[in-house]
Design brief:
The complex is a heterodimer of chains A (275) and B (356). Chain A is α/β, with parallel strands linked by helices and 275 residues long. Helices cover 38% and strands 17% of the residues of chain A. Chain A has helices spanning 3-6, 9-18, 49-64, 98-108, 120-126, 128-137, 177-180, 186-191, 207-224, 240-243, 247-261; strands spanning 70-75, 89-93, 113-119, 142-147, 150-151, 157-158, 196-203, 230-236, 265-268. The longest helix of chain A is centred in the C-terminal third of the chain and has 18 residues, at 207-224. The chains are: A alpha/beta (275), B alpha/beta (356).
């Protein structure tokens, strides 16, 4: 399927118009804000994937009816304020240390669903040690790894996942692999560890991909009850502001540049389908 | 009936953690404190169900403490000087988020990789806020293996009373040496749901967030004012010290931890020679017993401060004395432990000799 065709400019305009209308018959509602998503303005830039992923987490929590059983951790990065948007108990964490904090929580509250929500700089640069060892211990937590190939919050510096040749404020002439190293495929790396149970790469840049990502997130939560190891979901995302593109351009760019290097799909799945 | 045992300081501390009903310990091996992790790995889980986890680094262990302490359970870690340095960022987060927990530093000689011999060079790091920002730990300094045990229980109580991290600052000698210790009875591990803790949000309360992030300057100042108010309260209520033969003394030695015991011996030797010496041992290094030392300064000719460092607590002693009498300093560094005779000699040369 041509993914580009699914990014429909008119769809965005339609969404905007919908804000000025009202649904009279509640029974006709087919789509609304999930209860676990707090109804306030987010600080995320327009078109950023974080908001979509937050919503998916909230939808899954609502559908599984586990709001009282979930504890989330969001470390330094654009999503550090996630606790303002998700109506669940959450902890901020120091840069790179979300999975250590999540380990601490899960070890003393093993009956809860624990997830960490981390960006690429956090999970694959400063927190690489914690990421690998948390996965290697097979902590029964869910990683949600948002990879947009750049440091968003600090203003667009080179990340461990920045593509070769990609420009950032600290690779102004493009990432030079000879001096800056190659982009790190940490998801493939941790999939090699026996401690990981379910490893997948998803995206939220088209409606179709949003649906697939949601299914993966649901699996990630459900598998946690099996106590069989770490679930790890990478979501290849965009950063319109620091990529210096419109939201739609950034989704096209993601499709044409990020996905060939970070191909979507499951990397490691339970042998018996997680039964 | 009393339960008496001959134990290493590190083991007495680990045993006390189990008995205090500690829920989880996260740590990383480092000499001279590895016995804490080893003892707990061997003993704890089978006896009380306590979680014991060897982390991949001190950075990971302090952040595991941060995460777990957010649930309101009794959480601890221990390390020695270089490992404590690695933990400082996490400790700053813990202090700002007001998470109760127990930290232990079995101080060794530094700086750098230093030595595995005992030291007191981490005084500044411990009491002045070793990480970034304005924060305070409650710091307790044991001088005996008995106190290595007792302060674990007391440390947890203070941590929860004030929602503040508590640090036991001890040293490699106390960690390694064996003494008789009276163990306190096993306390039940029980979980109390605290209104601020992250335990999974039930319908009955709003969500909780553990955080030290407040982007608006005014809000961040508000948090700071709240913390400072709490620290003043701690200063008012929690000062602990031991005054040994200070009331009739002409000279006072100030020292903490193991050094205070060595100085007590030096003071006894001095008294045999007719020199009236007392020892003032701060037990809580924060809050520091400024007023107590200030009052004794009215009664004595001069004060000698002795430490296993280049002179750290002496700055607080001088603040306390506020120029009333001379405060001399004697220190050994790099893991060297002073003996009573050399302290007596310094006392005679620097204090008594001058007075005559």
């Amino acid at each position: 399927m041509n993914e580009r065709a699914l990014i429909d400019d008119e769809h965005y305009e339609h969404t905007l118009r919908a804000e000025h209308t009202e649904i009279i018959d509640r029974e006709n509602i087919v789509y609304e804000k999930p209860g676990t998503l707090i109804d306030i303005d987010m600080h995320y830039c327009p078109g950023c994937g974080h908001g979509v992923v937050h919503r998916l987490i909230a939808e899954v929590i609502d559908e599984m009816e586990i709001q009282s059983e979930v504890i989330g951790v969001a470390p330094v990065g654009c999503s550090v304020l996630a606790y303002n948007y998700l109506n669940i108990d959450m902890s901020e964490a120091a840069h790179g240390r979300a999975s250590a904090a999540a380990t601490g929580i899960k070890r003393v509250m093993p009956e809860k669903y624990v997830f960490s929500y981390q960006g690429d700089g956090d999970l694959a640069a400063i927190g690489t040690g914690e990421t690998i060892h948390t996965c290697n211990r097979g902590e029964n937590i869910l990683f949600l790894f948002i990879n947009n190939g750049i440091y968003g919050m600090t203003g667009g510096q080179m990340a461990p996942t920045t593509l070769e040749g990609m420009k950032s404020t600290t690779s102004p002439f493009g990432r030079d692999v000879a001096t800056m190293g190659a982009p790190l495929k940490i998801t493939e790396l941790i999939a090699q560890l026996p401690g990981t149970y379910y490893v997948t790469r998803q995206s939220v840049h088209t409606a179709n991909n949003v649906r697939k990502a949601k299914k993966a997130i649901r699996k990630g939560f459900e598998y946690q009850k099996l106590n069989k190891g770490t679930c790890f979901i990478e979501i290849v995302s965009n950063c319109p502001s620091n990529w210096k593109m419109t939201p739609i351009e950034s989704n096209h760019w993601l499709n044409d540049n990020m996905l060939p290097f970070y191909p979507l799909g499951d990397i490691k799945v339970p042998k018996n389908g997680g039964k | 009936m009393k339960e008496l045992k001959l134990m290493k300081g590190n083991e007495a501390l680990a045993e006390a953690a189990i008995r205090a009903g500690c829920d989880a310990y996260f740590g990383y091996p480092i000499t001279p404190q590895s016995e804490v992790l080893e003892y707990l790995s061997r003993e704890a889980n089978a006896r009380t169900g306590m979680v014991v986890l060897q982390a991949e680094s001190e950075i990971a262990s302090i952040n595991m403490v941060y995460g777990a302490a957010g649930t309101g359970k009794k959480i601890m870690t221990s390390s020695s000087s270089p490992g404590m340095s690695l933990m400082q960022e996490g400790i700053s987060y813990i202090a700002c988020a007001e998470l109760p927990c127990l930290l232990v530093n079995v101080n060794r000689g530094g700086p750098g990789l230093g030595t595995i011999q005992p030291g007191q060079g981490d005084y500044f790091q411990s009491v002045k806020g070793g990480g970034h920002g304005d924060y305070k730990l409650i710091v307790l300094a044991p001088a005996t293996v008995q106190e290595m045990s007792d302060f674990v229980k007391e440390g947890f109580e203070l941590a929860f009373k004030y929602r503040n991290p508590v640090l036991i600052l001890t040293d490699g000698a106390l960690g390694q040496m064996m003494e008789k210790v009276e163990l306190f009875p096993q306390q039940e591990r029980k979980f109390e749901e605290l209104d601020w803790a992250i335990t999974g949000k039930p319908e009955s309360r709003p969500k909780n967030a553990i955080t030290s992030l407040h982007l608006k300057a005014e809000k961040m100042e508000e948090i700071n004012i709240h913390l400072q108010k709490k620290y003043r309260e701690i200063e008012k209520n929690e000062i602990r010290y031991e005054a040994i033969d200070c009331d009739d003394a002409d000279y006072i030695i100030t020292a903490y931890g193991l050094v205070a015991r060595i100085c007590t011996k030096a003071a006894q030797l001095a008294r045999k020679k007719g020199i009236k010496v007392g020892v003032l041992r701060p037990i809580s290094l924060f809050p520091f017993p400024y007023d107590v030392i200030n009052k004794y300064a009215d009664k004595v000719t001069s004060i000698l401060d002795v430490e296993m460092n280049a002179g750290q607590m002496v700055e607080d002693v001088r603040l306390a004395v506020n120029g009333k009498v001379p405060v001399e300093f004697y220190g050994r560094m790099g893991g060297v432990v002073p003996d009573p005779e050399e302290i007596l000699k310094v006392l005679e040369e620097k204090l008594v000799g001058v007075a005559v």
